[in-house]
Design brief:
1 helix
Length: about 100
């Protein structure tokens, strides 16, 4: 039996929404209304040269912490390490080695 460790505040998660969108974000937890709270949500998009890039989910918002209504979240889980590393580099501008 595989035992998974619980998510911690600050972990990188992948969130699947009812719209079909998939987000990368920093997990913050749940608020009093049981809605998922994340920070710096982003999504993956194709770049002009055909590669994949990480872009902000809400392009014009200055708010870093976002509350996702529980009715719109299908599931969320820890992000694959390689993608999580790229996400962290993208949102912090810190190069991880």
């Amino acid at each position: 039996m595989l035992i998974e460790k619980p998510l911690n505040n600050g972990d990188t998660v992948t969130v699947k929404l009812t719209s079909g969108e998939e987000l990368l974000a920093t997990y913050k937890g749940f608020n009093d209304e049981k809605n998922l709270v994340v920070e710096k949500p982003a999504t993956i998009s194709a770049t002009p040269d055909g590669k994949m890039g990480i872009i902000p989910w809400m392009m014009t918002s200055t708010k870093e912490e976002v509350v996702l209504n529980s009715n719109t979240v299908v599931t969320f889980a820890p992000t694959v390490d390689e993608i999580a590393k790229s996400y962290k580099q993208s949102v912090t501008n810190i190069k991880l080695v």
